[in-house]
What we know:
146 residues; 3 strands
Amino acid sequence: MGKQLRVSLRQQRGLSYWGLLLVIAVFGFVLTCVSRMGPAYIDAYYVDEGLRKLAQNPDLETMTKGQIRTDLDRFFLLNNVRGEPTKALRVISGADSKLVSVEYELRQPLIYNVDVVMKFNKQLNTAKADLCCEPLVDLKQFRKSD
């Protein structure tokens, strides 16, 4: 039994220096990615929530472009959404409805000369408010926009 114990203890060596260094490097890389990309995804979440809140508005069909823009701007201000999402807000008039679109692209530097490009596209068609937030329309087909 003593011989088995010695063999067992030799096999149960811990994490080596290089193994520990690798774990720390992977953890650091993941932490860097989360800290750089996390705020963009938090803003995208609030853009989605703002469009969903707008879709629940009973007066949505009769709201003007300015009222829609003001309502979303107020929501973005309260939830600290700044930058590209607020600049990319477009309200487009169609024949029987309005399309509220927030389509933007963010380029975030990650490490040295490596950038991460994140694309976000959220849409709300006032005629189909229940299908909120997924891109339903190609915006290139519209001419008139606000």
